Amino acid sequence: MENFKKLLDGIKGIGLGNALRTIIYTNRKKKADKAYWSVVNKQGSELRIPGKLSDVKVIENGARASFQNEIELEIVFLKKDMVRTTWTPGNLPVQYAVIKDDWSDVDVKVEQVDDSWVVSSDELKLQIHPCGSVSYFEGKKLIRQENPPRLEGKAWTQTAELESETKIFGMGEQANRLDLRGNSFELWNTDPGGSYKFQEGPLYMPLPVYYCSNSNRGHMVFHENTFKGKLSFKEEIEVNFIGGALRTYFIKGEIKKVIGKLTELTGRSPLPPLWALGFHQSKWGYKNEGDIRRIAKGYLDNDLPISVIHMDIDYMEGFRVFTIDSERYPDLKSLTADMEEQGIKLITILDPAVKVDKDYPIYQEGIENSYFCTTPEGQTFKGLVWPGWAAFPDFTNPKTREWWKGKYSALLDEGISGIWHDMNEPASFVSDGDSTLPLSTLHNLEGKKGNHAEAHNVYGMNMNRAGYEAMRELRPDRRPWLLTRSGWVGVQRYAWHWTADIESSWDALKMTVSGLLNLGISGISFSGSDIGGFSGKADTELFIRWFQLAAFTPFFRNHASCQTPDSEPWEYGQIAVDIIREVLRVRERLLPYIYTCSWQASEFGFPLMRPMFWDQDDGNLSEIEDSFFFGDHLLVAPVLEEGQKERDVYFPEGAWIDFYDGSVYEGDREYIVKIQIDKIPVFVRSGAVIPVKENSSRILRLYAAEGTRGSTTSYIYSDSGDGYGASMVEEITVEQNEGHININRMAKGEYYPQE
Ligand code: MIG
Fold first, then answer.
1. DSSP β-bridge partners for residue 65
2. Would you say the CB of residue 349 lies under 6 angstroms from ligand 1?
3. In the predicted model, is pLDDT for residue 248 greater than 90?
4. Which of 301, 387, 498, 683 has its CA 20 to 30 A from that of 312?
5. Whole-model pTM above 0.90?
6. Which of 9, 204, 284, 497, when mutated, tests ligand 1's pocket best, judged by the most ligand atoms within 8 Å of its CB?
7. How many helices (H) and strands (E) does the chain have?
8. CB-ligand 1 contact for 191 (6 Å cutoff)
9. Distance separating alpha carbons of residues 114 and 333, to the nearest angstrom
10. Residues belonging to the active site
């Protein structure tokens, strides 16, 4: 019965033809995966542990330890407080995440101490025990204890101690609490299929990156292994990958520092065009040009500021990628031009899969040049997506990427401003089981060659890489803007991420706060959620609360499924429209500030949304998951409960000023604040200078509470909003003393904002 209902829902969602094909595909995939595992099992699943440490050699910046059972551990320091360990045998990762390999020399000592070996810098010491366990020390203090790993066939598993007070953050995209301890996560990019709820997973973009925090002591761990895997944080930490070498980066320090170093290793988000920080409207189901014009007019008529409208899959001709349906959009170029005049950019969605259709040039070219993924027998692999049977471009093949890049002109030449990459886990419809390609599907992996078990998690990442490079090359004077559903560590270099098909519920609103914070901790600075949730219709109150929260998240977009009723602001009544107008105006007013936060992301890898323990981690601040910092100086305390009339807000040290009414709250304590329907509580740090846009002028607002002392630094970044011209960074330090304020301003750069 349950299955039958699922089947019916499936048919409603994807159409009868595709629903029937799904059954065929699912059977095929199951057979292929069964065959895959039987081959893997035949290769043997003999269990190996390192055995006794037999030899240690000094290498550049580190050491290589050999163990009795032909297992090796390589230790290399990249910085004094950042070390890479690699257990082999197993293939080293294809270099997708890491962008830097020229680290300056670290003074590393390698010495034997009794029967163990110590490899150390001035700041961090690794002790290799004779059995293969490794202890990490800061001075005398043990900060991590890893047990000897086990190799079973080609799969590595390793456990490490999890101290009772340690909290875990990061892990890319998770539908969870902020502290992830107690959970187990699959490392396998997955389309949950139309809706997901609290603690459901894996989702589109889990990442093998986590921050362990233990009041003021912390470290970041990144496992550079793209294979299907698992990470769990129950009684102990356990990591497992079904193939590849076990390579791990360990970075010691507080959250700000380790995010800076992680993103030095894996790259940072480039500065976005300013328009992308404005408000986006989207809805799956906008049918044609008329719909786009109607939505733009709705925003205009209701005096609601808007920056972008998204075009979902229905703009294509029979869901063929890089085509435009000429009945629905007879003259897209004029449409984009008209919209541009109203200050609205258009974005189109783009899926990876290419319709199997011998009369469709993109399919033909892909076949002729072997750009698609193949089955182990060497045939073009065919999965199932919107257009029916479809081939999957192998984005891990540099030639495929080069070819695909050229195709973007079909959209960019029509005046499309940015691209939204969907379904790139990659997703293929199934009636049950894992909605992707069989593990045995073959990929190029930069010439190394391998299968889907290794390439799956970096598929979306490489689609984004192609898209980003395409936009750079085809439109060199403008900054690329891409949104992606899936990716891997480092995807922040190419695209923003959104949490996609989240259910429409208060629980979902709550997990949006912790989810976006954990993405930021994983190096993904720019992210957002579908306002109101994707899969259902939020009631008016939930819609308003979600809108108010989203205004203080990097990617600010209203979007929903085609199976839900219309959900533009005016669908929720006049009161909602009036409230949302104010929300949109606040966002607009804050754009110079948010732009500065974006610059910080591009310079330092900092997320725009930061957890409460960002500046000081006293163990208590890391417990707070219902408020956060937006940039350096705003403290946001969203309303996450239905009918809430008041809420607790904990203020960190300093003094805090209500963004709306100027009332002052002392830091280092908790207050109960009253809540109204028209806004969520937001506070500004006393001593902060916030750049805002008011009546198209730039104004600097100084927030200073009487009686606060000390010095606060604010940055303001400005440039023309797009392209690669001059810029200016202002550094303003405000010193508050008894009875007077000193303001010091320094500026660097050639761009002079028009005041
Ligand atoms: O199979 O393009 O998450 O935002 O509206 C669903 C249609 C495909 C999933 C995305 C969603 C988008 C929808 N897509």
1. 56, 73
2. yes
3. yes
4. 301
5. yes
6. 284
7. 12, 45
8. no
9. 74
10. 422, 425, 501
